[in-house]
Amino acid sequence: MSTEQHKIGSGFGAHSTADDVLTGIDLSGRTALVTGGYSGLGLETTRALARAGAHVVVLALAPGGARVVSVASSGRFLSGIRWDDLHFRTGYDRWSAYAQSKTANALFALHLDTLGGDSGVHAFALHSPGQHPHRCSKSR
Fold this sequence. Notes:
It is a single chain. By secondary structure, the chain is an alpha/beta fold. The protein folds into two domains: about 20-60, no CATH class; about 65-135, no CATH class. The chain is built from three helices and four strands, in the order αβαββαβ. The chain has helices at about 20, 40-50, 95-115; strands at about 30-35, 55-60, 65-70, 120-125. The strands form two sheets. The chain has a two-stranded parallel sheet. Strands 3-4 form a two-stranded parallel ribbon. The chain starts with 17 loop residues before the first helix and ends in a 13-residue tail after the last strand.
């Protein structure tokens, strides 16, 4: 089922700017949350809201500094991926499932790092402390 959208007669159209929409509106004392406000339309919206007097909070991270961290483990060596039974229909073994999940985390991080690397977005699969000797797990 579809419902036809009726025009609301706002007077604005595809070529209207954020400043056009906010002309004559005082947003002093108001707070606006803008997602993606670091570039493009989000940035222009942020600027227009600020010019209208709003306190603007931008909910965004610059992609160049972004990173994704997943937890890996040497437990991934306990089992290979069971490509013929990904849903464990022929039997469930918790250690096999654990190993496959850790392999999936490592492969996810590897692929995501490949996809985002040119944009400065990096992904890592880190071993949890205590799995391997590391300065983070040493007593002080």
